[in-house]
Amino acid sequence: MEQLKKSDFYFDLPEELIAQDPLEDRSGSRLLVLDKKTGEIRHHIFKDIVDYLRPGDCLVLNNTKVIPARLMGTKTDTGAAVEVLLLKRHAEDVWETLVRPGRKLRPGAKITFGDGSLKAEVLEVVEEGNRLIRFFYDGIFEETLDRLGEMPLPPYITHKLQDKDRYQTVYARYEGSAAAPTAGLHFTKELLRAIEEKGVETAYVTLHVGLGTFRPVKEDNILEHHMHSEAYQVTREAAEKINAAKASGNRVICVGTTSCRTVESAAAEDCTMKACSGDTDIFIYPGYRFKVTDCLITNFHLPESTLMMLVSALAGREHIMDAYAEAIRERYRFFSFGDAMFIYSC
Q1: What does the pLDDT look like over 140-185, one tens digit per residue?
Q2: How many CB atoms lie within 10 A of CB 232?
């Protein structure tokens, strides 16, 4: 196969198309519908997605919940300001974190947060310069974090989020993500009810989104890019619903790249699913053979990102680049709080 370059997935995005705030109506976003076989494009409102779903289809949603993972503190001995972003829990009170500025936080460094009810010590430096940190507190960690932490919005969002629930899906359940599975932000409880009433099955999987998904690809040859691992779980109920849809010739429609990466990681070589959990560092790019995913609901992604590569694997790079050019011409809103795309086949 011809070598894939990072630059193959570049597009020029006007800065004003980066959505800074969520819409008041979650399901009022715009929806670009792309036929992955023909490249045909149609324009809709997100709530119209129900018209593209069929009885027997299985909609797969990631029910992870974003934690207020951004902590602002001070270095205990000097009072210097530091930022700690929780990425992944390694043990009860030990987390892998991203810290700023890193040079001030070597092993042994101690940090105080807020009113001093949360303290931490840097244990060691690990991959990519991340730090393992042990936290000290009284009571329940999640309650302390909820009081002192902030939602870790992506760096391209400069506005302050007024309602932190808007960076959660309405079906968020299991805490553990450092970023939201943003394709799911468009769903309301009413829209999910309408989808179920149409006879569409909904299967919930869990993948705790880490920042590795959003790390820029640095190598020009994308095959040299290393994905960070993220924890996932597929329940028996979800596996059975997905298997039933495939067995009956119906479509499996993943909501978001995280749901897609979960089912593709968990699927066996014969394309069946079973209950399982683990860590995945799956990297999906053009040439990948999808085992489970037929269609994908997704947002518009950053240029040269692994997410652009994933959607290109499903719909074809040329179709995706054409669709993105059309979205820019039509002034769609991009990234986490932006509009959506439905990549489908009949």
Answers
A1: 999 999 999 998 888 889 998 888 899 999 999 999 999 999 999 9
A2: 24
Q: Check whether residue 269 and residue 321 sit in a common domain.
A: yes
Q: How far apart are the first and last CA of the chain?
A: 28
> Which letter does DSSP use for residue 215 in this model?
S
- Do 19 and 62 have their domain in common? yes
Question: Mapping DSSP to helix (H, G, I), strand (E, B) and coil, where does residue 90 land?
Answer: strand
Domain of residue 137, CATH code? 2.40.10.240
Task: Mark whether 217 and 304 lie in a shared domain.
Answer: yes
Q: Which residue matches tokens 């299967």?
A: 203
Q: State the residue for tokens 């691992």.
A: 229
- At residue 290, φ and ψ (nearest 5 deg) are -70, 130
Q: What is the three-class DSSP state of 238?
A: helix
Candidates 240, 285, 236; CA nearest to 260 is 285
Query: How many structural domains is the chain composed of?
Result: 2
**Six-digit token string for 276:** 């399982």
Angle between helices 257-266 and 306-315 (to 10 degrees): 70
Does this model's pTM top 0.90? Answer: yes
Question: What single letter denotes the amino acid at residue 56?
Answer: G
Quick one: 283 and 250 in the same domain?
yes
Is the residue at 154 inside a domain? no
Per-residue confidence (pLDDT) for residue 216, from 0 to 100: 81
pLDDT-derived band at 346 (thresholds 50, 70, 90) equals: confident
